[in-house]
Amino acid sequence: MKLLLIEDEVKTLLSLKQGLEEEQWAVDIAYDGAMGFQLATRNDYALIISDIILPGINGLDLCRKLRAADVTTPILLLTALGTTDDKIDGLDAGADDYLAKPFELRELLARVRALTRRSAAQPTYTGSTLTLADLTLNPDTKLVTRAGQEITLTAKEFQLLDYLLRNQGRVVSKAELGEKIWDVTFDTGTNVIEVYVNFLRKKIDRDFEPKLLHTQIGMGYVLKLMA
């Protein structure tokens, strides 16, 4: 999944970008509110992280403009202004969370995980068809096809494919799948997830080329076109 990071202080921007990328996030960057607004309205992001004090459009006005433009992406505001009134102003402007500087990177990452978990639980792709190569999934009609051929999935297989398509290109761990698809934490000795991944792989990959569902040993699974 991809994040948008908006920060005018270059050292802070690069430090946060590196920390997020080390956690396997793809990160787009903007140095001011105007650039951030353009990127946020033209691209789909799992989360927008923005400083409040920005040249041009400040973070609060950016939140208001994005919400007025019907951008529903979660927004996390970063700022040195940490009073209760400042936090209320940020939330009232349309932000979903607020983190006062200075902060530790691990706290930022925890906020990112929490906000993207909430976002993933919402039907953000309703009315749209998810695609990768010739694989398609329609969340509304529950129709799945590969190379134009309809594929029949069980409810759990459909949920699994839906989640992997929404996160295509990103390695998804077994722990994350357990939490998101089964809403439980599996014991390390349980192979339920491997079994369902194999069921799904047989249906979407066995009779087709190129292969799309890949195992990253010791890390998890990723749905993508291999180079």
UniProtKB/TrEMBL annotation:
Pfam families: Response_reg (PF00072), Trans_reg_C (PF00486). Gene3D superfamilies: 3.40.50.2300, 6.10.250.690, Winged helix-like DNA-binding domain superfamily/Winged helix DNA-binding domain. The keyword Ion transport does not apply. GO terms for cellular component: cytosol; protein-DNA complex. InterPro entries: CheY-like_superfamily, OmpR/PhoB-type_DNA-bd, Sig_transdc_resp-reg_C-effctor, Sig_transdc_resp-reg_receiver, WalR-like, WH-like_DNA-bd_sf. Residues 2-116 form the Response regulatory domain. GO terms for biological process: regulation of DNA-templated transcription. Residues 127-225 bind DNA. Residues 127-225 form the OmpR/PhoB-type domain. The modification 4-aspartylphosphate is found at D51. It comes from the Bacteria. Keywords: DNA-binding, Phosphoprotein, Transcription, Transcription regulation, Two-component regulatory system. One of its GO terms (molecular function) is transcription cis-regulatory region binding. This is Response regulator transcription factor. It comes from Spirosoma rhododendri.
